[in-house]
C-alpha cells in the first residue's frame, strides 16, 4: 500500500527535532516506496545535529541514512522485497562510477543529507530501485538490525577491500570497540586475518571484542605510541607473525590521538586506511611513506554491488549484529541523540517507526 504521506522526525534547524507529515514525492520510473523497518543512528547524524557540519539539503530535512525496510510501492518487480538502502547511492553513469569507484560518485545521493528533505527517521522513503540491496533468507535476524549494514558494516568491508586484506594478514583496528570499529574488527577476522589487534580506550567494550574477532586487545590510555607498538610487536612475535612489516592499520576513530597512533604503527610495506572522520589536523613526515614503501588510503562508503557480500557475512555469523545493536521506538529519537552525543549508549541504536 502506497501511503498518501510520510510521517517523519524532521530537523527544522540543527539541534531541534519535530514530528512532521510531509508529502510523498512523485515516483520516477525506477523509484520504489520503502516502508522503513529501522534506521540506525550514526555519528554522522550527530555531526549534522550538534556539531555544525552542514547537510547538502539545508534544513528542514529528516536525517537518517542507515535504512532497511520492505518495498510497498513503485517498481512492480520489487514490491514485497526486503531491502537495505545503501547509505550513498551512486549515479551509476559517470566516469567515477564506471571506473568501479561508485562509492565516491560526485553525483551520489545520501538519504538524510542530499536526497531533498527525505531521510530514514521516517515511516517511508522513496528511493531509486536500481541500487537497492535485496535481503536474502535472513533466518532469525530481524530486518531492522540489517539497517546498520547500510553504513556501519559496509564501510569497514570496503576499507578491508581497499586494504586488500587477505588470509594471514595482521590487521590493527584503532577504535576497535566503537559503532563502526566493532564491525571493522569482526569484518577483518571474517575475511581471514591471521591476527586482529583491537585498540580502544573503552575498556569494557574492548574486552567484549575478544569474543568478536579481536585476537589481542590493547587499551592505549596512559601509554605512548611507542609502548603500544611494542605490545603489538610482542603479540605478533608470540604468534610467529611479522613484527615490523606488512601490518594493515584501520583508523576508525577520526581523532587526533587515534590518527597519530595509526601513523606510528605504519611501517614497511604497511597500509593505513583512514576510515574515521574528524576535523583536527595531524602532522606526519610524508617521506616515511617513501622510505617504508607504505600506503595511506582514504576510504568512503561502499559500492552497492558489494552489499550482498556483507549481508552474507552478517547472516552466516562471521559478523554478529545482535550483540552490537539495539532497537528503540523512533519517538525516543531526541533522547537517543542526547545519549549518543554524550557517549552513553552501549550499542548502536536502530530506531523503529512508531508514528
Ligand atoms: Zn553513517
Ligand atoms: Zn556516478
How would you characterize this protein structure?
With 355 residues, this protein is of the alpha/beta class. It folds into 2 domains: 5-151 and 302-352, Quinone Oxidoreductase, Chain A, domain 1; 154-298, 3-Layer(aba) Sandwich (Rossmann fold). The chain contains 10 helices and 16 strands. It has helices spanning 43-50, 95-98, 154-162, 181-190, 203-209, 225-238, 256-265, 287-292, 307-315, 333-341; strands at residues 5-11, 18-23, 31-40, 61-62, 66-74, 82-85, 124-128, 133-134, 170-174, 195-199, 216-218, 248-251, 271-274, 295-298, 325-329, 348-352. Strands 3, 5, 6, 7, 8, 15 and 16 form a 7-stranded mixed beta sheet that branches. It has a 6-stranded parallel beta sheet with strand order 11-10-9-12-13-14, sandwiched between helices. It starts with a strand and ends with a strand. The model has no long low-confidence stretch (mean pLDDT 97). Residues 42, 44, 65, 87, 151 line the site of one zinc ion.
Question: How is the topology of this model organized?
Answer:
Layout (H helix, E strand, L loop, with lengths): L4 E7 L6 E6 L7 E10 L2 H8 L10 E2 L3 E9 L7 E4 L9 H4 L25 E5 L4 E2 L19 H9 L7 E5 L6 H10 L4 E5 L3 H7 L6 E3 L6 H14 L9 E4 L4 H10 L5 E4 L12 H6 L2 E4 L8 H9 L9 E5 L3 H9 L6 E5 L3
Helix pairs in contact: 3-4, 6-7
Distance between the termini: 16 Å
Structural class comes to: alpha/beta
Give me the CATH fold name of the largest domain: Quinone Oxidoreductase, Chain A, domain 1
Name the helicity range. 10-25%
Q: What is the element string, with H for helices and E for strands?
A: EEEHEEEHEEHEHEHEHEHEHEHEHE
**What does the radius of gyration come to?**
20 Å
The tally of beta strands, per DSSP, is 16
Q: How would you state the average pLDDT, rounded?
A: 97
User: Given the structure, what is the number of helices?
Assistant: 10
Q: List the quaternary state of the chains.
A: single chain
Q: Tell me which ligands are bound.
A: zinc ion
In one word, what is the shape? Answer: globular
- Low-confidence stretches at least 5 residues in length (pLDDT < 50)? none
Provide the β-strand percentage band.
15-25%
At CATH level 2, the architecture of the largest domain is: Alpha-Beta Complex
Question: What's the CATH C level of the largest domain?
Answer: Alpha Beta
Number of domains: 2
CATH superfamily of the largest domain: Medium-chain alcohol dehydrogenases, catalytic domain
Largest sheet: 7 strands, mixed
